[in-house]
Structure formats: C-alpha cells, structure tokens
Amino acid sequence: MLESASGGQINSIMLRGYLQNNHSIPKADEIESFQGAISFGVPGIYKNVMKIDFSGLYPSIMRQYKVHDEKKDPLKLFLTLVEYFAEFRLKYKKLYKETNEKYYDDMQGALKIFANSCYGFLGTNGLNFNSEKSAAFITEKGRELLKYTIEWATNKDYEYWKSLTENKEEAEDETT
Q: What is the DSSP secondary structure assignment for residue 48, as one 8-state letter?
C-alpha cells in the first residue's frame, strides 16, 4: 500500500536506481508553470455523441518520444519506469480480459495510475528528477494530438460514425 503521493514513490525508485549505480543525485528544480491540457467543452445536452479516447495519452507520448531529462537522468531510468508500468499494465489488462479475475484488474489499475503519474512527477516541485521542460513537451504533444483529432472528427458525419460503430460491434460478435 502506498502512503504518499505516487510522484514521491517514483522519485524514491529513481533515487534508489541512481544510488545503486553509484551515480550523483540531481537537485530538484523549481517548477514555475507551463501550458497544460486544453478543453473545448461546450456546455449543453447533445444527442448522437461519440467518445474518442486515447489509450494512455501521456504515457504513450513519453514512450514514443523517449521523454526524459538528459541532464538529470542520463541513465534513462525514467524511461525504464514508464516502459515497465505501461508493459505490465497491458499484460495484466489482457489477463483480466481472459480470466475476469479481480486481482488482474486491480494490478492493471494500479499500474495505470503509476504510468499516468510519471507525467505529474516531471512537473512537481520538490522531486529530484522533476523536469519542467519534459512535462511541457508532453502537454504540447498532447495538445497537438487533441487538436488533430478534433479536426479529423469534425470532418466526419454521423452516418460514417454509425457505420464504424456497427462494424465494430459486428466484428466483436463474430469473435465471441
């Protein structure tokens, strides 16, 4: 059981890794502020709404672009942690789907929290391996992906979405 914020736990894991490698420990930087996520929500009641969800947006960005602070984390332990949390989450998520055992769902849920916390860890004051530059890069890429997705989705009509949904449901029915 964790008794402190997950960013502190990630920092502790990083500290241990660097100490085991007889490597120096960086000082925490003061995080000022950086542009975060975007929201274009318009209040109201809507019909025929489709949800588009990214699968682990920030962890995916960290993995795709190999986000780490080269000065603070030359051993790239941060990337190792992100990969570990993401890969084992997928493993446990698959096992849960295959077995429906709550243990696997709990494990994938905990690993999801840690994978997502890796971004927050970078943008938090008081942590040795924090990195405003890296956190800002992640949110920048996230905004780019969201804007692209919004542009893509607004050029589609309802019939297109309906056919995609129906085809997906038909495909799922055939595999079960």
A: S
In tens, the pLDDT along 105-114 reads 999 999 999 8
pTM, rounded to two decimals: 0.75
pLDDT of residue 7: 80
Please state the domain extents for the chain. Answer: 8-24+57-135
Which residue from 69, 68, 35 is spatially nearest to 141, judged by alpha carbons?
Answer: 35
Tell me the HSE value of 39 on the side-chain side, using a 13 A CA sphere: 4
User: Could you count the other beta carbons within 10 Å of the beta carbon of residue 114?
Assistant: 22
For the chain, how big is the Rg over CA atoms in Å?
A: 20
Place of tokens 């969201």: 146
Confidence of residue 48 (pLDDT cuts 50, 70, 90): confident
CA distances, 2 to each of 5, 16, 23, 173 (Å): 8, 17, 26, 40
